[in-house]
Structures are given as structure tokens and as C-alpha cells.
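Worked example 2:
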Amino acid sequence: MEMHERLNWMILDALSEETKNPIKKIYYKYKMEEIENMKDENTTQLTLRLPKELHREFKSFCSLNGQSMGDVIMEVIKKYVEEQKVIKKNE
């Protein structure tokens, strides 16, 4: 079973009638749609270790701004890659 299939299964299980928390249901439904959209793309997974305090602050800021941590990290990486292309081009 591929990772996205396992995640879908976990999310569907969380969406079952036993889940009473409506916020959790909305969150899992959103994550399921996000996973479905990503599996059609040519993507890979990135795993990294962060100090706990940095992770907590990052997660908090993302939440306050209504952004997912993954989306913010992807934008930072895209910006870094574009900056590096400009630097290499100007060398």
C-alpha cells in the first residue's frame, strides 16, 4: 500500500461517524483533498529535523496566517532555488 493510500485510509477512518469533533472532520477532509491533488503531481517527500521550539513557533505562525507548514516551506524552497539560479547566472 502506497503512502497516500495509507493516509487516505487513516483520514477516512477519522471521518467516520465515531469522530464527533467537527473541526477535526473539516481538517481531515481538507488533508484528504490535498493528498488526492498531490498524488497526481510528480512529487517527493522531504523529511527534516527541527529544534522543538523552532517547530512550535513555525507551526504557530503558519496557523495564525492560515497557511500550512508544507506550503510555506515549499515557497521558501522555491524562492531559494530561484535566487541561486540568478546568482549562478551572474557569475
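The domain at 46-91 is CATH 1.10.1220.10 (Arc Repressor Mutant). The longest helix spans residues 69-90.
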